[in-house]
Specification:
The protein contains twelve helices and 20 strands. The protein has helices at residues 16-31, 46-57, 63-70, 72-87, 119-126, 153-163, 197-205, 213-221, 275-284, 315-329, 356-366, 390-400, and strands spanning 3-8, 35-40, 92-95, 103-104, 113-115, 130-134, 137-139, 145-147, 168-173, 194-196, 226-230, 238-241, 254-258, 261-270, 290-297, 303-311, 333-337, 340-346, 373-377, 380-386. It binds adenosine-5'-diphosphate, aspartic acid and magnesium ion.
């Protein structure tokens, strides 16, 4: 007998018909002799709908109340799925995050899970029930409802699996696994039968929303076997694995992109010690995260140009702050652009192969795509380009690095 945690995303529970289909799948798994915990998201579109409702009242709503609001989406689906299971004759019980003590810190809208009390869930499982848990939500130590950030149900599932020492955590979604890139952008994308935690973490943090970053972090840290599968068709999906010596490493395993980026530059800043600190401190003080950073000495050697990227949600705030900093430092100008995207090549095999960067840049140049910023690490190369070139860039790189379907496995 195995203990399995299954997570079903928004599309998979988007209608009553689909919830019934999920119930059938869960029931079949349990009938085969396994214990099953199910984590569900809100019905597709629901979280966005709730956020928009609050937006009609206040453009900058209180984070605590927002978490009370958006966590309701998942509460609807746990009840509906339990009813569906019961209808099929399968005893099931639903729980909110708070009810199974998913304890988090108090960072509303981006809370981190600190502890889960698995005892209640185990008692139900041992009594032969299916346990249905609301994804995305928890409670802080004062009992306030918190949420884990967009896509956070993935993290609930992995954390549940870790707490219960489950044999596998299965993420059921609307694609049948992790692909070389988002199959919605490149139809020739190829499903990977395996990907390492390291690469998956990089793909997720560079914008591939198929798994929430924290879910991958958690799975790596607590050694949770993690698999991405389709809710709608049978198949093996993609297993997220630790790097194995024997694994034949492709140079590049995938292409990630993020449409959430915006770029800011401050030009002609006096080139003195402490300038980078002053610019970024003002940004960090407002809780804005900075991603890529580039500093260039200007031709006159007395001043410097400094550019960085932030999340598009923080763009307007960051522009205001930078204008203020610019006045303080006596800079020449501020430039800002929220029509850029970040495109990244990821692969652990990149470490041992020279020339990947130059091939990437050549491929983009051949398509007439101008690179605005570059950043690299051992297993990724990222570039910032104009958003209008997203599809073109992804497809050109996909072909150049032999990732297209029916090429190398
Ligand atoms: P769910 O609602 O089930 O959590 P998500 O929309 O969060 O589903 O994640 C699945 C989506 O992730 C897919 O529909 C796909 O468009 C997107 N995606 C982005 N990058 C990838 C990738 N490399 N492989 C597979 N899917 C990807
Ligand atoms: N419902 C939440 C969201 O839309 C959490 C999730 O789906 O994972 O982000
Ligand atoms: Mg998701």
């Amino acid at each position: 007998m195995a203990l399995i945690v299954q997570k079903y995303g928004g599309t998979s529970v988007g209608t009553i018909e689909r919830i019934m289909a999920v119930a059938e799948k869960v029931k079949a798994r349990q009938a085969s002799g396994d214990q099953v915990v199910v984590v569900v998201s809100a019905m597709s579109g629901e979280t966005n709908r709730l956020i928009a409702l609050a937006g009609e009242i206040d453009g900058n709503p209180d984070p605590r109340e927002m978490d009370v609001l958006v966590s309701t989406g998942e509460q609807v689906t746990i009840a509906l799925l339990s009813l569906a299971l019961q209808k099929l004759g399968s005893p099931a019980r639903s729980y909110t995050g708070g009810q199974v003590h998913i304890l988090t810190d108090s960072a509303h809208s981006k809370a981190r899970i600190q502890d889960i009390d698995g005892a209640r869930v185990m008692a139900d499982l041992n009594a032969g029930r299916v346990v249905v848990v609301a994804g995305f939500q928890g409670v802080d130590e004062r009992g306030n409802i918190t949420t884990l950030g967009r896509g956070g149900s993935d993290t609930t599932a992995v954390a549940m699996a870790a707490a219960l020492k489950a044999d596998e955590c299965q993420i059921y979604t609307d694609v049948d696994g992790v692909y070389t890139t988002d199959p919605r952008v490149e139809p020739k994308a190829r499903r990977l039968s395996r990907i390492t935690f390291e690469e998956m973490l990089e793909m997720a943090s560079l914008g591939s929303k198929v798994l929430q970053i924290r879910a991958v972090e958690f799975a790596g840290k607590y050694n949770v076997p993690l698999r991405v599968l389709s809710s709608f068709e049978e198949g093996e999906g993609t297993l997220i694995t630790f790097e194995e010596e024997s694994m034949e490493q492709a140079k590049i395993s995938g292409i990630a992109f993020s449409r959430d980026e915006a770029k800011l530059s401050i030009l002609g800043v006096p080139d003195q010690p402490g300038v980078a600190h002053k610019i970024l401190k003002a940004i960090a003080d407002q809780n804005i995260e900075v991603d890529m950073i580039v500093q260039n000495i200007a031709a006159d050697e007395a001043t410097t140009d400094f550019s960085f990227t932030v999340h598009r949600n923080d763009f307007n705030k960051a522009v205001d702050i930078l204008h203020r900093t610019s006045e303080e430092l006596g800079a020449r100008d501020v430039m800002s652009d929220d029509t850029i995207i970040k495109l990244s090549l990821v692969g652990v095999g990149m470490r041992s192969h020279a020339g990947i960067a130059s091939r990437m840049f050549e491929t983009l140049a051949n398509e007439g795509i101008n690179i605005r910023m570059i950043s690299t690490s051992e297993i990724k190369i990222s570039v910032v380009i104009d958003e209008k070139y997203l599809e073109l860039g992804v497809r050109a790189l996909h072909e150049a690095f032999d990732l297209d379907e029916n090429k190398t496995a």
